[in-house]
Amino acid sequence: MCDTAGSINGRTGCPEVKPAGADGFGEHTCDDDIENLGELFKELGLCMMEIGILVARACDIVIGGNQLEHSITDFGSAKARLIHYHSELDNRIIKENSANRRNFVNNAAAAVTPVSDHIDMSCYQMPGPGYGSRMTREDGQAVWHYDYGLLTVLTAPLFLRSALGQECPVSEECSLPDGHTHLQLFNKRRIFSVRCSQESFIVQIGEAADILSGGKLRSTLHAVSRPLGLPNISRETFVVFVQPSWDKTLPSSGYSSADEDDSSDHLESTSGSDGSAGSCSEHILMQDILMKIPPLSSRLKEGMTFADFSRQTTKQYYGGGGIQQNS
């Protein structure tokens, strides 16, 4: 996962980018693309930031006011991530390599005097299960969660088929027969699988937009699933998280816990051709999802800045004592 960041021009409200050529992009060869990969991702990220601003402007027209767009253009920021979701084959290779490394270290350690014989280790602690920010399960797939920013802009995913080469796995681009992105959405009644063309962008509503709109916009509960029966398929996607400024105050008075329709009593068990599915096992799954999501009312307090809210959200999801840390 690699990160890059962009900024918003406070005067024009547009992402800032230095053009590569007279037309704003320049002419690229394949070698140039590899050499300038970072710049190409930055250009794509800034383009996706501009999409976020346009979507925020459209949302403001529907809900009234200009709260969302101004939250981005008034010293807002964005973080971009290129995210790789391992295939089952990837995970198997990683585990085998990890086991081989452990055996090598253990054999090497057996040949020397243990360090603990000479050093008091009582003041040292190894990180536990809740150490750091944990965004994926052990099988490499994302847990169910909300994004806490304003908007999340995603490219259509790229799928790669892996095969074992002589020295290391090799991958080639492929398309899935079902046409799904394997991004799943949950509206607290049904689970939906998202379909889109390769030329499309996906935009999700984050919790900050939910809060600033007083609940008129609803944040998207989502996760990524692994294609069933395809153990050698990995998934790549480029994501831009559009955020307000860190010192932006989020109003809690206009958003009460009563606005959170999180009761599992409303779960439906239906099935249709729109990508939704329903069964007894899925009904149990949805109840389990709702139990593991920390409610917004437990994370949003009066006078909180966006920085405070992001820290509290990260702590409850993934930090020490986080609800999903042992999932």
Largest sheet: 7 strands, antiparallel
Work out the helicity level: 25-40%
Evaluate the radius of gyration: 22 Å
The number of strands is 11
**Structural class by secondary-structure content:** alpha+beta
Question: Can you describe what's shown?
Answer:
By secondary structure, this protein is an alpha+beta fold. 30% of the residues lie in helices and 20% in strands. It has helices at 30-35, 37-63, 67-73, 88-110, 207-212, 280-292, 296-299, 306-318, and strands at residues 2-7, 77-85, 151-155, 158-164, 169-174, 180-186, 191-195, 201-205, 221-224, 233-243, 276-277. Helix 2 runs antiparallel to helix 3.
What order do the helices and strands come in, and which of them pair?
Layout: E1 2-7, H1 30-35, H2 37-63, H3 67-73, E2 77-85, H4 88-110, E3 151-155, E4 158-164, E5 169-174, E6 180-186, E7 191-195, E8 201-205, H5 207-212, E9 221-224, E10 233-243, E11 276-277, H6 280-292, H7 296-299, H8 306-318
Antiparallel strand pairs: 1-2, 2-10, 3-8, 3-10, 4-5, 4-10, 6-7, 6-9, 7-11
Helix pairs in contact: 2-3
